[in-house]
Amino acid sequence: MCSTGISTKQQVISLLSDINRKGMDNVIAYLERSDYFTTHCHHHHHYEGGLADHSLGVYWEMRASAPELPDESCRIVALLHDLCTTHLEEYDDIGHHRHGLRSVRLLEALGLTLSNEEHLAISKHMHHVPSAERGLLSTALWYWLHHCDRRNAKTA
Question: Which of 25, 113, 114, 134 could in theory staple to 119 by disulfide, Cβ–Cβ 3.0 to 4.6 A?
Fold first, then answer.
């Protein structure tokens, strides 16, 4: 459920602050210093603050659609899957890779360790998972991120 009366920024920071993982403090500091809370998405949620609204919407959509998934992983992949669209000068030179892979590279540069499933979900959230990777990793996290991301994009 979405917390009524609490700003998107407060919700995102609260959800990420509850994660006890090395590097998360750096990620939160990056979000607060970058344009994460003020920028828009490229093709949807095209208004000031749209990126953060979209990311939070994807999180709530994932929780409603797949409550069996680990909440910590849902928080990470939903709230940070489009990190690549943010800007902060000292990090702007990190990879000009594909959309999702740049998000993973930024998270790694900030010191956040991702599980294999989280890495796959974020790096390939815009794409179908190649069959070779399907046999190696659980794709439930990717599946729900991919579908909830698309569903939420259509609501804007």
Answer: 114
pLDDT digits (tens, 9 = 90+) for 70-128: 999 999 999 998 888 875 556 566 666 566 677 888 899 999 999 989 988 888 655 56
> What contacts 114, CB < 8 A, 6 or more positions away?
76, 104, 107, 108, 122
* C-alpha distance from residue 77 to each of 46, 70, 124, 152 (Å): 21, 11, 11, 14
**Buried b or exposed e, range 98-131, using 16+ CB within 10 angstroms:** ebbbbbbbbbeebebebbebbbbbbbbbeeebee
Mean pLDDT on 12-40 = 93
Phi and psi angles of residue 132, each rounded to the nearest 5 degrees, phi first: -65, -35
Q: Residues with Cβ < 8 Å from 75, sequence gap 6 or more? A: 15, 16, 18, 19, 59
For residue 73, the model assigns a pLDDT of: 97
Q: Which residues of 39-52 are buried (b: 16+ CB within 10 A; e: fewer)?
A: bbbeebbeeebbbb
